[in-house]
Here is the input.
Amino acid sequence: MATDGQAEGDRIARLLEELQAMAGPSTWQRVEELVRRLVSLYGDVLARVLAAARERRLDAEGAARLCEDEQVATVLLLHGLHPLPTAARVARAVDALRERLAPDVAVALEGIGEDRVARVRVAGEGRGCGGAGAALARGIENAILEAAPELARVEISGLVAERPEPLVTLGQPVRAGGATR
Here is the structure.
């Protein structure tokens, strides 16, 4: 969305003045720190973009290399400007997961539907059970959604189902008076 830079700058200045009038001193200090940090973050990312552009012409390969910088990729994602399509970013995330998971766990991207749902299959011996299966599912989901936040969700099949906790735990019999045998 293109904007008139001067008009946008004026509007930002007015909003900051209004916020300062409404906020107490400690709140305003936090607002100022937030603005400083955002400006610094964007300045750092833009410096990286310019350095990469100077390094070589920014073709598709160059854009992909630029996105290897996590902060640059995050800012581009935030603005819907990431040069890699969703499927490519999800595939990269799945490849990175394969490298981090146990050798007996296989993760495969089955596809991304028009419903913006990434479907992933997990196979192998170490697919987790109980809390481990849930932790594995959370890790897979987080990695994929971090790479492609525009997805609606991630569906994971093939994980060993969590076993419910038993309602009663059998232990040593208790005698009258509460003593165990």
Observations:
- Residues 25-55 form the longest helix (31 residues).
- The beta strands are 105-112, 117-124, 153-157.
